[in-house]
Amino acid sequence: MRQRELFGITPIQIAMSDYSKHIEILPNVHLVRGENAARFPEANTLLIDDEILTLVDAGSSLQNISSTLKDLNHEISDIQRIVLTHFHIDHKGYAADIQKIANCELICHSLAEIGVRTFQGLIELYGIEGHKYYTTWQSYISQRFGHVMGNYNVTSTFTDGKPISCGENDLIPIHLPGHTIDHTCFGINGYDTIFLTDIDLTNFGPWYGNKVSDIEDFKKSVERVIDLRPSMGISSHLIDPVLDDIDERLRKFRRVFDEREKRILDNISKGYDTIEKLSQKPTIYPRIPKDVYFVFEMFMLEKHIHILESNGKVVEESGHLMIEKR
Ligand SMILES: [Zn+2]
Which pLDDT belongs to residue 99? Predict the structure, then answer.
């Protein structure tokens, strides 16, 4: 019930666009919500209204960021620093556009600096160049997300565990890879409130569709958050912070890996015996909303198959996957 008491509204009452653009989640720490209920390609952003006016990520619409700043008697040009949780387009988002206006610092993790700096670097970390669906993906991005195709001026990198002071508030980087190699959550003034980023607690579950994504690392990262026992978890893709049953929500999110693995094994036994056939089912996405998503479905399937082969549950013979009968 705490969620209701804090924000005065339950998530079920909130329509897709009918919610306030920002809420203060801790003193001077504001959640700037993404459009469309913060679903990809939108994402939430944090605004720390402190001595150093700081954004964490820049993936909610510029309009939502601007109107939040305006409500707090600021404007885009006042932003002094942007801290990025990882290199993805829905997180680095409008950081380059903001830098052009505010000339602010841009700080990211060193492991994926290349993916923040340039679009080509991002493509390399995605690992999709030459893939069957690569040109479909590229034309989709250039039509819809021109703002992420330019260069970003990374001014420095942060260090895992070393607090970034905003004045009264500290952001503590917690490197939790798996979703991507650089994926970093941020404890706010400790570990009781954590910006969970893309350990996002959505019903979809974990996403690990890049070359630099790793299932085992992702599982360990979720377990690390469970061990930290936060009482508030802020997702990049849910408009309300999670206050109730976080432990169970994290465990449910973690179980999705096992559910997908089971589905893959079932599908192989039914004759979907190649990555291509499994992806047409589809197995990870409940449905494929656009052709560009096949590339990520296939990447995630490949990662599962690799694990299933290395632990002897699946074998490949003449290009066909088979369940290992022991
Ligand atoms: Zn991401």
Answer: 98
